[in-house]
Amino acid sequence: VKFENALYKALDQNELMIYYQPQINYETNTIVGVEALLRWNHPTEGMVSPDEFIPIAEETGLIVPIGEWVLRNACLQIKEWHRKGFPLISVSVNLSVRQFEQDNLFGMVKSILKKTELAPEYLHLEVTENQIIKNSDITLKTMEQLKGLGISIAIDDFGTGYSSLGYLKNFPISTLKIDKSFVQDIIQDEDNAAITNTIITLAQNLHLNVIAEGVETKEQAEFLAARSCYLMQGYYFSRPMKAEDIAELYLSCG
Ligand code: G
Ligand code: G
Ligand code: MN
Ligand code: NA
Predict the structure, then answer these.
(1) Which of 27, 152, 182, 201 would disulfide-bridge 174, Cβ 3.0–4.6 Å?
(2) What is the pLDDT of residue 132?
(3) What is the pLDDT of residue 228?
């Protein structure tokens, strides 16, 4: 209860912040987007990882106002960068399953896009396979509405969920994000290399975009590029950073 109250206050008192991690096109050596990653700057505990508080936010339902806050602020930030004449990058925002159970997720997203004036093509939403199978009927309907607006949807942590591949036919998915647990060992571990190869080929055959997460070395980047997987994200390029640092390092100097 104490933690829950503190989290509730965090939202109220501006203790939540968004870090951004660049998504790179390795072929053109440009930044194409950022992923918004929530942080809690706790007054006494310091920076608390979302791994610690998202589960509580989900249990208590606080994820609904928190998720809305993340979405609104991420869209505002990207729109501000666009207005400044920076490269037209996209933003990827993580959605939790509870947000699909909320009253009117589609209406909320639509109204945020309208208020922030961000063009829908620059908003990407990330969901996991487990979220898709949890409430597949309502999730499918909401995803179709979101796609109708021009928003694209990515499957996060692809390959780690407990789901069949059949949903890729029925759900309006644009992108597979290869989970970092596969990418991290592609050089040393033949099995992870094989899984990564297979995901890339699956995406290519289904005409989906594919992005590799958790790229930490040049060797991993070269491995992926050799298989025409050029979209990458990971510490090799950049850690998640404050908005000001992204603008300074990646956006303003071209
Ligand atoms: O940034 P980091 O790797 O520590 O994130 C840990 C986990 O928290 C990841 O699984 C990430 O998807 C999740 N996460 C980060 N930001 C958000 C957010 O705004 N909403 C939701 N639902 N999950 C998030
Ligand atoms: O689950 P999701 O993919 O949304 O979360 C991404 C998480 O991965 C974030 O917590 C982010 O900080 C972390 N991350 C991003 N790049 C790397 C990386 O290169 N290596 C590792 N170990 N973690 C990363
Ligand atoms: Mn993600
Ligand atoms: Na992921």
Answers:
(1) 152
(2) 87
(3) 98
Nearest to 105 by CA among 73, 74, 149: 149
- List per-block mean pLDDT (blocks of 10 residues) for the chain, which spans 254 residues: 88 95 98 98 92 94 96 98 97 94 94 98 96 87 97 96 89 97 96 97 97 98 98 98 96 75
Question: Is the CB of 240 inside a 6 Å radius of any atom of ligand 1?
Answer: yes
H/E segment holding residue 90: strand 90-94
pTM for this entry: 0.97
> Which whole-number Å values give the CA distances from 197 to 12, 83, 93, 111, 140, in the listed order?
45, 39, 26, 39, 28
- Contact residues of ligand 2, CB 6 A cut-off: 21, 37, 94, 156-157, 180, 213-216, 234-235, 240
**Which ligand ends up closest to the CA of 35?**
3
Query: Could you give the residue ranges of the DSSP H alpha helices within the chain?
Result: 2-12, 50-60, 63-83, 97-101, 105-116, 129-134, 136-149, 167-170, 180-183, 190-205, 218-226, 243-246
Tokens for 73, please give them. 């602020």
202 contacts 176 by C-beta, under 8 angstroms: yes
ipTM of the complex: 0.97
Homologous superfamily, domain 2-251? EAL domain (3.20.20.450)
Tokens of 243: 């908005």
pLDDT at 225: 98
Residues whose CB is less than 8 angstroms from the CB of residue 183 and which lie 6 or more positions away in sequence, other chains included: 192, 196, 212, 213, 214, 215, 220, 224, 234
Give dist(CA 165, CA 116) in Å, integer. 35
